């Protein structure tokens, strides 16, 4: 018996947007493929909520917009549509041409790492984010232990790496005026439940 490989279906950007607008679930679009995004676990959602709240409070009445998981981002050079866990825009929002629901100009992005997404978030996704001209800072937050990694851009093709792993550590963002202790970032997170 001969098994034939299942043929991979490729979608146009228009196909994706039509499907996504009418979908109950969120999907990423990566170079012609549509990929279902996994749902978040309680720790994942708590961390996003804690970080979003700190950012939103620190940046109120300042020229920044803070968004979380439901805001679509367009990365034109790849082409990719994705939903970062958190993104911050400085100044005016720039939307994808012809769209009112897709941002193109984040200055900072944060991802909460999970077992299923960690490799992608650290590797290709970070590489894709770096093609966005205004993108300056990337924060990766572990949901299984108290550990945060941050990269910020100093010059073209040069990034500074820092990591934080104690409750007393203060994550001071480089691109936006916000600081948060890891104790606050991980508030109510139960590492035993996941």
Furnish the topology, listing elements before pairings:
Layout: H1 13-21, E1 27-30, E2 33-36, H2 42-58, E3 64-68, E4 72-75, E5 80-82, E6 86-90, E7 102-103, E8 108-113, H3 118-122, H4 124-129, E9 137-142, E10 148-155, E11 158-164, E12 170-172, E13 179-181, H5 182-185
Parallel strand pairs: 4-7, 8-9
Antiparallel strand pairs: 1-2, 1-5, 3-6, 4-5, 6-8, 9-10, 10-11, 12-13
Gist of the model:
Helix content is 21%, strand content 31%.
What labels describe this entry?
5-stranded mixed β-sheet; disordered N terminus; 6-stranded mixed β-sheet; 194 residues; 13 strands
Could you characterize what this model shows?
This protein has 194 residues and is an alpha+beta fold. Helix content is 21%, strand content 31%. The strands form three sheets. It has a six-stranded mixed sheet. Strands 2-1-5-4-7 form a five-stranded mixed sheet, covered by helices on one side. Strands 12-13 form a two-stranded antiparallel ribbon. A hairpin with a 6-residue loop joins strand 12 and strand 13. The longest helix has 17 residues. The radius of gyration is 17 Å and the shape is globular. The N terminus is likely disordered.
